[in-house]
Amino acid sequence: MNVQEEEVYCLMTGFMTVYLCFIENVLQQDFQHFIQLFSQHDSLLNLENQPFLWFYALHCSQDTMEILKQISVNIDQAFILKHIDSIFSKFYTLYFLEAAAQKHQKDHGQYYTPQSVIQFMWDKCASMPTLVQYLQRDQMPRVFDPCLGMGSFLCEFLTRFIKACRFSIVWNDPDRLKSLITQDIPNHVWGIELDPFAYQLCKINTMVQLFPLYERLKELGVKLEPASIQRLRLFCNDSLKMRVDTNPFWDTNTSQVDLFEQNCLDLLRDASQLKFDYIVTNPPYMIRKTGFITQPDPAIYDETKLGGRGSQAYLYFMWIALQRCDDQKGQVCLITPSQWTVLEFAQHL
């Protein structure tokens, strides 16, 4: 790690510390119990494969928390929880990445998507009546984001879905709400992000989105046991490969394999095995030969149709989205330049 990389890493760790302190302050006394509900793999208390959390774990003192509690007098918890991913996405992109890690941003094709654009895209796919109908049929739509970033698109979906719960009989059904938070949402919301830092922020954002369900269950007198929320299907990996060994945390010196991740990635690799109702995202934009884009796995991508090394990266994400969209009712909504419609690639769609 050179000096510049070390500076960026320290900034990332500091950003993560501020973020977690902020969330802990917003959730206040419920924070510790809430994070204990997640699986050992997802828990913020587990520092394994979470290189940006150690400073928070070691140095977030009671004195710091006391200062934050004094600030909390002027905090509207409901408003912040609703917009927390948008608040930190904008701060991360405009003031952190642009000021201190522009090369990191460029290499990964990371650009902030305005919340109004995200909402517009979801409005076109998942209206409130549609989501209420899913709940009335005792169903849960399957959602996938192959380039998560900080998770803004998934968080917007979860915000809408939980709002739909409030407008249905589900909101007064403790058994259904418990099933949603512990099983249905973890099993049906999928995503991949290559950048470890953005991935960690995404996972935290996703976890926070579930807090309203936790609060409602408390109101209904339901106490969830520690580790009762099943492992989230969010993976730090490369969507162009989707193998266990393309996880940035993969240890080549050990033969130990994360079987859960391996099984899920195997499903994602095979477009015939797993289909989604909604794939809504903003793919990275760069030419493969100039950016932080690896050689795609030929078992997943047909480069004779996609155009090879000179292709724009978003074409690969368009390919994976269209192949994994449910043939009958699935919807894909992507931000793309208009030029793809006149490229040779478009003839194969």
Automatic annotation (TrEMBL):
<dbReference type="GO" id="GO:0006304">
    <property type="term" value="P:DNA modification"/>
</dbReference>
<dbReference type="GO" id="GO:0003676">
    <property type="term" value="F:nucleic acid binding"/>
</dbReference>
<dbReference type="InterPro" id="IPR050953">
    <property type="entry name" value="N4_N6_ade-DNA_methylase"/>
</dbReference>
<feature type="domain" description="Type II methyltransferase M.TaqI-like">
    <location>
        <begin position="187"/>
        <end position="344"/>
    </location>
</feature>
<keyword id="KW-0489">Methyltransferase</keyword>
<dbReference type="InterPro" id="IPR011639">
    <property type="entry name" value="MethylTrfase_TaqI-like_dom"/>
</dbReference>
<keyword id="KW-0949">S-adenosyl-L-methionine</keyword>
<protein>
    <recommendedName>
        <fullName>site-specific DNA-methyltransferase (adenine-specific)</fullName>
        <ecNumber>2.1.1.72</ecNumber>
    </recommendedName>
</protein>
<keyword id="KW-0808">Transferase</keyword>
<dbReference type="InterPro" id="IPR002052">
    <property type="entry name" value="DNA_methylase_N6_adenine_CS"/>
</dbReference>
<dbReference type="GO" id="GO:0032259">
    <property type="term" value="P:methylation"/>
</dbReference>
<dbReference type="InterPro" id="IPR029063">
    <property type="entry name" value="SAM-dependent_MTases_sf"/>
</dbReference>
<dbReference type="GO" id="GO:0009007">
    <property type="term" value="F:site-specific DNA-methyltransferase (adenine-specific) activity"/>
</dbReference>
<dbReference type="Pfam" id="PF07669">
    <property type="entry name" value="Eco57I"/>
</dbReference>
